[in-house]
Design a protein that fits this description.
mainly beta; Neuraminidase; five-stranded antiparallel sheet; four-stranded antiparallel sheet; 27 strands; globular
Length: about 400
């Protein structure tokens, strides 16, 4: 008969392979949460001995976004797919309700993205990307909100920036963030189903399958098109579009050099990471990754190559992350963290200085962890967080030598 330790390890491996994340956590020695409910373990090792994931909070339900609150260095806003946003105190692991949005939640719909305005510390302005329940049809909505920037109290919707019709319930994307230029960048997927049946990815007149660049500094309703947007003088492309040819950009970020790093979820074969410049065409659905999609040959002129791809042997749905710049895990400093939602594989990439297919990407493989990484976050310190969609826990990337925080 196998030893108890060997049996335990075998069962844990089988549970992980089957995607039974809750069972895997139990076999790994999960502890109890503050309400007595079973929680995930306090920490997870990675494939690199210099990096561990230390749990800082639990009790969230299907988290979709993590955003550090400007002016509140120990507070993180955590979005949940079903429409609730909560404020997490990193010092204690406690969190409290902040706001609720009525959303559709079928498939990939929900409360999907949050961006604080550059002047949030004085204006209290922030923006949400959601699938609103009060719309007559499926739409992706970017709404303007305000709260007291000191206490974070009284969050209230004050306007609607834009709405985009969604033909299906998936490929909503949902990220939004402010760039170093003060403009609001918004990501929309191709509208869904599978294989882009309406050809949105290469249709410049639709806002689906694009990244948008918007000026929202003039008021709470609507937006202005920045005069230096790349397609302003191109009648074949909507003026608000900054880049097109995307399938489902699930998370993007600006790196310390001001470059936009996008993770785009693949269809059948390839997941990809792109360095996106103004006016880029990322190729969907002419191509998936660097290969032709559903064809033996395809045109490549004018299409931007991804800087990094991985195949279905390593994962099935990329989750874009952040560039770690803090001292919590020195091995990750300057690297772009990215993960796979299905496999739990994590990587830390040393991005190239130029977005060319021949420039190598330095890959630090952090291995497979028993999480479903749905979103990453970066604190004002530069340290990185990751949320587990399955268990609702939030983890911080730290070195094993880092002093432990009180367990939530």
């Amino acid at each position: 008969m196998a030893s108890p330790n060997r049996t335990r390890a075998l069962l844990a491996a089988l549970a992980l392979a089957a995607g039974l994340w809750g069972l895997s956590a139990w076999l790994a020695g999960a502890d109890r949460g503050p309400d007595g409910a079973q929680g995930p373990p306090l920490r997870h090792a990675t494939a690199d001995p210099r990096v561990i994931l230390r749990r800082v909070a639990l009790g969230f339900v299907r988290p979709t976004d993590l955003q550090a609150v400007p002016g509140h260095p120990d507070t993180v806003a955590v979005l949940q797919k079903d429409g609730d946003a909560r404020l997490l105190d990193l010092r204690t692991g406690a969190h409290r309700p902040w706001l609720t949005v009525a959303v559709r939640t079928r498939s990939e719909q929900g409360l999907l993205g949050l961006a604080f305005a550059p002047d949030f510390r004085t204006s209290g302005r922030f923006y949400l990307h959601s699938s609103p329940a009060d719309a007559a049809e499926r739409v992706g909505r970017v709404s303007a909100w305000r709260c007291d920037p000191g206490t974070l109290a009284q969050p209230r919707q004050v306007g609607v920036v834009l709405e985009v019709a969604q033909p299906y319930a998936n490929h909503n994307a949902g990220q939004l963030t402010f760039g170093p230029d003060g403009m609001l960048y918004v990501g929309f997927g191709d509208g869904g189903a599978g294989g882009d049946p309406h050809g949105h990815g290469q249709n410049g007149r639709t806002l689906l399958g694009t990244l948008l660049r918007l000026d929202v500094d003039g008021g709470d309703d609507g937006y202005r098109v920045p005069g230096d947007n790349p397609f302003v003088d191109d009648p074949a492309v909507h003026d608000a579009v900054w880049a097109l040819g995307l399938r489902n950009p699930w998370r993007f970020t600006f790196d310390p050099h001001g470059r936009l790093v996008v993770a785009d979820v693949g269809q059948n074969r390839w997941e990809e990471v792109d360095l996106v410049s103004p006016g880029d065409n990322l190729g969907w659905k002419v191509r998936e990754g660097r290969t032709c999609f559903d064809a033996e040959t395809c045109p490549t002129e004018g299409l931007r190559d991804p800087v990094w791809t991985y195949g279905r042997d390593e994962g099935k749905s990329v989750t874009g992350g952040v560039v770690a710049t803090g001292d919590g895990a020195p091995a990750l400093r300057g690297r772009y963290l990215v993960g796979d939602f299905v496999s739990g594989h994590l990587w830390a990439l040393q991005l190239p200085s130029a977005a060319t297919p021949t420039t190598p990407v330095g890959v630090l493989d952090l291995g497979v962890v028993p999480l479903m990484p749905s979103t990453f976050g970066r604190l004002s310190s530069g340290d990185a967080l990751v949320a587990d969609f399955a268990s609702g826990a939030v983890y911080r990337f730290v070195s094993p030598a880092a002093s432990p925080a009180p367990p939530p």
